[in-house]
Write a structure and sequence with these properties.
Blueprint (H helix, E strand, L loop, with lengths): L1 H8 L3 H12 L5 H9 L6 E7 L5 H14 L4 E7 L25 E7 L11 H11 L3 E5 L16 E6 L4 H7 L9 E4 L7 H26 L5 H5 L9 H6 L5 E4 L8 H18 L1 H32 L3 H9 L5 H21 L5
Parallel strand pairs: 1-4, 1-5, 2-3, 2-4, 5-6, 6-7
Length: 358
Amino acid sequence: MSDLIDGILASKHRALARAITKIENRSPGYRDLVSDLHDHTGDATVVGITGSPGAGKSTLVDKLAKRYRDEGLTVGVIAIDPSSPFTGGSVLGDRIRMASTTGDMDVFFRSMSARGSLGGLSTATGDAVKALDAFGKDRIVVETVGAGQNEIDIVKTADTVAVLVPPGSGDDVQMLKAGILEIGDVFVVNKADLPGADRTVQELREMIETRNDYTADEAAHHGEEADPVIEAAGGAGATPDDADADEAEWEPRLIETVANSGEGVGELIEIFDEHARYLEESGERERRARVRYAEEVRTLLREDTNRLLEREIERRGGLDALVDRIVDRETDPYSVADDLIAPLEECVEDRERDGVRE
């Protein structure tokens, strides 16, 4: 493990590939690996590319990588692919998509399986991004499977989120209202040389103009209840300076591109850079990081708790045996859940009584 970590910190691509494989497969020791790499992260800029299938995400990512390399920056790309229902592996595998940077050792491309994640974002993606960050990549691009309500998971990983919409896609624009609208920092009408591009741009512009009011209403609604996990993380929510921050709130950008020819890619990168400066100068980057870590703690707690509960279920004869008792009216689902969680509650209560609290 130490050799693997040393290899990553020394920017050895073989070590990076092995580490991401270990992370994706959740092999023994992967958590220690990610934990040891954490101190070496925080320097890379992470861009998320999402959008409906056929929007041209892969082509745009290819052109972005090429442009970043032209600027002398190193690049890491994680492409989330649909997963096989039989093996759980990536359907498309390590397919060749980075044609513009083939043979360039400073562009690291990795295709990862969604593994059944509803949002098309593998739970291992965030850890893989950390490995790329610790490796020393300047820019990390995460391309997701497609757009949808659950695709908002990308905000848990990326600093800047670009939503791609193809021309003439009225249904896609309507779908954005269901959830994607709130998470897009940049909206890209790709394939802008096709018919219908002007109408799509206009529809998106109208949606963006109404976004501020919608976001304000949502913030007021959710602000009624404090989040104990975020509070425990140091109060990543509202601050006394929120009023000032609102005045400088990022206005979502709208841009047209033609990824095949590279048209508009330079301007898109300029917007990404502008957003990165905004995040730093406004303090939003740190705030987002705090919220992101709080969510990561939640996820790890859910995974670990589920694993412990599965062991307890097996110790009691398996879930089928418990269901049999419910069907026979010997017990009920709530009572079963209470019984299963009881050992964990007892452990917490014992620690509280002993004064072992952190």
